[in-house]
Amino acid sequence: MARIGLFFGTDTGKTRKVAKMIKKKFDDETMEKPLNVNRADPDEFASYEFLILATPTLGEGLLPGTSADMEEESWEEFLPKIDDKDFSGKTIALIGLGDQEGYPDEFVDALGELHAFFTERGATLVGSWPTDGYEFNHSEAVGEDGNFVGLALDLDNQSNLTEERLNLWLSQIASPFDLNL
Fold first, then answer.
1. How far are the Cα atoms of 53, 93, 99, 166 from residue 155, in angstroms, in the given order?
2. What is the C-alpha to C-alpha distance for residues 57 and 114, in angstroms, rounded to an integer?
3. Which stretches make up the Flavodoxin-like domain (predicted)?
4. DSSP state of 32
5. What domains can you pick out in the chain, each with its CATH number?
6. Which of 22, 35, 93, 124 is most exposed, with minimal Cβ within 10 Å?
7. Is the dihedral of CA 150, 157, 11, 166 positive or negative?
8. Alpha-carbon distance 177 to 169, whole Å?
9. Long-range pairs for 121-124 at CB < 8 Å and ≥24 separation?
């Protein structure tokens, strides 16, 4: 088994695309292939010491799932399956996708939901990201320090910045993830 689990939820395929971009940078001993959480086994998910988790925000700030009018299950249905897991000793980095122009009042809110869920279960969360360069009104993913609680990506309006932001963020989490970049 690889050291890092890479899991995502998706609706349009953009989050899967980002997960594949990440995986291309690492070998199979370092990182597992990206897996949609609707196919994830809760025990296998919880067995990783290091996790990179990615989610879009749907509609009015929702985690992806059936209540957000998705045809398939996603984070909304997966989180209750791992509700009783202890993530103490685990290091988790988060990525959130959103549309800051179309949804400026709930930009990457789902990122904040994942952060709260795993923090409450003892995980060490790394990879906060500055809000500079984004234009939005409000986000539940902005922490007390004024930064996003994970990497925020807007493939709708700033796709030209995705690769650069991703590379900088991966170099930022390299030390806590014990990565050689």
1. 17, 19, 7, 12
2. 11
3. 4-174
4. P
5. 4-173 (3.40.50.360)
6. 124
7. negative
8. 12
9. 121/85, 121/86, 121/87, 121/88, 122/86, 122/87, 122/88, 122/89, 122/90, 123/87, 123/88, 123/90, 123/91, 123/92, 124/89, 124/90, 124/91, 124/92, 124/176
